[in-house]
Amino acid sequence: IDQDIIAPFDGVLGYRGITGDILGSNNSIIITLDDNSIIYSDLKIPETFAPFMKKGLPIMARLSGSKNRVYNGKVYAVSSRINAETRSLLIRVMIENENSELIPGSLLEVIINYNERNSLGIPDTSLMIVGNKTYVYKVSEDNIADKTEIEIGIRDSGFIEVISGLSEGETIVAEGLKKVSPKSKIKPIEK
Predict the structure, then answer these.
(1) What is the C-alpha to C-alpha distance for residues 19 and 27, in angstroms, rounded to an integer?
(2) Low-confidence ranges of the chain (pLDDT < 70)
(3) I want to staple 95 with a disulfide (CB 3.0 to 4.6 A). Which of 2, 39, 60, 181 is the partner?
(4) CA dihedral of 119, 133, 158, 122, whole degrees rounded to 10
(5) Is the pTM of this model over 0.70?
(6) What's the distance, CA 79 to chain centroid?
């Protein structure tokens, strides 16, 4: 009897290598149907990071063999308890795979952005530390350098977070601090 099997979603057909003698008939063909537009991956997160894990956190994933291509996604679900044997928290992430470049079962490196924040940053080469205070040279519209105290936060990849003392759009001296003195006129070089 010929019958149609209709799946409740669109996908890509694949072939499972199951031989006829396993199924009892040489005429049987088993196929798979996969919708790879979204990939779900389960991760075990160390217990120390458990308090920060929550649904909706942004993630970035890379194929282990191709570090240049980044796939975006988010935390889809978080387990309600720590595994007592592994001391880890199970979470599930959802990765966008619109062009079906990721194949289920691929080895991925996943970064979970649990403490991401948007803040003002300056190059670490622009910072002067005197005792327990930090300063930068802020440049006025008439190119006068003025030593300005700032409060800093975390460092990351050559940049330092500015918590207070500067506003977005202000110009500072980024390099050559030894050649600058307070209230002196400078000639800015744009890079």
Answers:
(1) 10
(2) 1, 15-30, 191
(3) 39
(4) 40
(5) no
(6) 21
